[in-house]
Amino acid sequence: MRTALALLLFVTTFAAQAASYQWKSDHHAISIDVVPITGGDQFNVTIVDVATGATLASPHLVAASGTQAEWTDDTGERRIHLVLRATGQDLIATAELSKGDTMEERIQTTWSTGPRHVMDLSSDLRVSGDVKAPRLIHRVEPVYPEEARKARITGVVIVKAVITREGKVKDAVVLKPVPMLNDAALAAVKQWTFEPGTLNGQPVDVVFDLAVNFSLTPKPADH
Prior knowledge:
By secondary structure, the protein is mostly beta strands. The chain has helices spanning about 145-150, 180-190, and strands spanning about 1-5, 10-15, 20-25, 30-35, 40-50, 55, 60-65, 70-75, 80-85, 90-100, 100-110, 125, 130, 135-140, 155-165, 170-175, 195, 200, 200-205, 205-215. The strands form five sheets. Strands 2, 3, 4, 5, 6 and 7 form a six-stranded antiparallel beta sheet that branches. Strands 1-11-10-9-8 form a five-stranded mixed beta sheet, with no helix packed on it. A four-stranded mixed beta sheet has the order 12-20-15-16. Strand 18 (about 200) and strand 19 (about 200-205) form a beta hairpin. The longest helix is centred in the last third of the chain and has 8 residues, at about 180-190.
C-alpha cells in the first residue's frame, strides 16, 4: 500500500468564492472544484490514473456547512472511498483506492482555504548570534478538537510567533499545519508566557518557532 500525505499543493480561484484544488502523486491525481451553495458546499471531484490518463471517478458530493461528504464506489474492479470536509479554514481530503484486498494508495491531504494572515516581522529580531532565545515559563496545553480525536488525527503543528520583550505572544501563524489541529494550536500558543529573548542582555521582541504536539497516547502520570 502506498500512503501519500500532502499539504497545500495548488489552489486556483475561478469565481468570487468558488475554487479549484489539485493533488498529484506518481500514481493518481485528484482535482476538486468547491462551489459554495446555500447552507454548504458542492464538491465536484475528478480522480485520474496518472499512468494511463483514464478518469477513474468523477463524483459530485454535497455537504452542509461544518459536515463531511463521503462517497464510495465499488461497482468496478477498483474500490474508491472518498471523504471531504471543508472547515472554513481548510479543505481536508482522504481517498483510498484498492483492488480486491490490495490497497493501491491512501491519500491524505489538506489545503488552506481561508485568508492568509501575514505577520509583520520588519521590526522583530530572529534568534541567532547575540539574540538569545526566549524561555517558556508557562505553557497552556491545546484543547484537542473532538472531531480530530474521533478521526485519530495526531501530529506536531509548528507555529511561528512574535514574542514581546514582556514575554507575551504578540502574533502567531501556522508554519507547518496538521489538518483539524491548527486553530487549537494557535489558541494555546497565544496563552503561553516566556522569559523574553535578549540582545546584549536587554529584553527584545523576537521571532521564534514553537512546536505544539497533539497525541492520543496518554501522558505518564507524575510521581
